[in-house]
User: Fold these one by one.
Assistant:
Number 1:
Amino acid sequence: MASPGVTTVTSKRSRTRRAGESAYGLLLLTKNAVVALIALFLLAAGVWSSWSDARPAMLTKGLDRGVVTVRECGDDWCTGSFTPAREGGEDPDRVRIDKAVTDGTGDRLAVALKPGTDEGVRTGPAGVLHAWVPLGGSLLLAALLVAGGLRMRRTAWVTGLLGAALLGASFAALTF
């Protein structure tokens, strides 16, 4: 409210200034859209990468299941003899399994075989959590983008804590 005797002058912003403000707003909107798309791409890649191992670890119906007794380990893979849980069918004599899910030679693990391969995927809680490790990593990376690029700090904290919890739970399940 103006004081008595004082006149206020309202002036319109120039056309150039309004265009500049619109361009800056469009630039910010574009930046946020690009960062959000990159974060979504990271999450989709984590799910895609995890699903090839998570599907046989979680959905074992119709798959060949059994126990692998680890005989020898290389840099990334361990191999061992496979004892099927049910009789019948054509089961491989030797199965290879990711070295990260074993304790070394002599370890006996419940596995499900990927269809058409001699590759076993550990089943049970430890196998399922290990299968989703790439998603946990992508959640951590996406949290950095959400915090830094989108300035959504609470969402970033939740995303990062979910990723860290998934990685920690996988580590704990495989260790203990």
Note: Residues 61-122 form one domain.
Number 2:
Amino acid sequence: MRSFSADVIAAKVPLLWRAVAAALLLGLVLLALVEQRARVLRNGTEVRLKTVPVDPRDLFRGDYVVLGYPISMVEAGQEGARPYQRGETVFVTLGRDEQGFARAVGVSREWPKGSGEAVVIAGRVTSIGGCAINANGETDCRGNRSRLRIAYGLESYFVPQGEGKAIEATEKARIEVVAAVSSSGEAAIKRLLIDGKQVYQEPPY
């Protein structure tokens, strides 16, 4: 019996149908990504984050703010443990400070055992150094400890064109982000507040 390779079979399919099939596949992939993010926004646990805006503009997508958080700098852990590497995925356990904002209370390479009802957020190590952002949003380089800078996918937020600079110029203590964190550690920005008042809410789709 004559066998046909995948290339031979594909060659027999009209080009138009192949293009349609590719477009449908791409659409399904994009739809899955959108639905995954929407699921995080709908069902994720809300956490309050202090923010530090950095950069006001993206020429291709209108205005945006780049945000830094106190939880973006985390103590690397006990001495003698295997050093963390840039690009490594980590899981940060979150607690709350006296004002109700999230704070990092632990970091590990694996999902933390015994985390219970605590919120755990997944991130990626972007650098390793000795400085951290303290509770006032100021860089603190005191001591000789190793700290990790971690990105959570919450570092940029797009806003209507022309309004990014106004947010960037706002005093950092006045800005707050409410993020949703899924049970697997995925996170997405849900709301942006200034002086406790909502100024933007992310639509689920």
Note: The radius of gyration is 21 Å.
Number 3:
Amino acid sequence: SLWGWGVNKNADQGTGDYEFMHPKPVAMQKPISVSLNGEAVAMNNGVITKDGQNFVPLRSVFEKLGAVVAYKETSGQKMVTITRQNGDQKTVIQVNAKTGATSVNGAEVKLANNPFNVSGTVYLPLRFISEKLGATVEWLPAEERIAITMK
């Protein structure tokens, strides 16, 4: 058994809600591991599944995919820029972590679920960004693992 104490005030994580007391145990998200080309990726904060989509902390995986990650906060905007140069091909992904507005190489893209912030850490959609950077992403349910392959 695992007992937790506290309130998920933003109702952002797993099956969290605003209730403090529940009459019976509440399901918790199982830990999900991430591997890159077969090697485990160490993360300070884990994967959060929200509305069926996996999100990871801003710098946890994307820098390991060869991208440069920049975060800039100005006048109410929280902009994340992820850039990867692969030979003569450059990919630039910009995400407004506050509004969810996203563009890939200047073209607007609609995300299925907006990024979010938990205790000062920005969480971005793992599959969307990894695939835009040229990786293949596979969910291995028997292992509770996300396998990313980068050529």
Note: The CA atoms of residues 56 and 125 lie 7 Å apart.
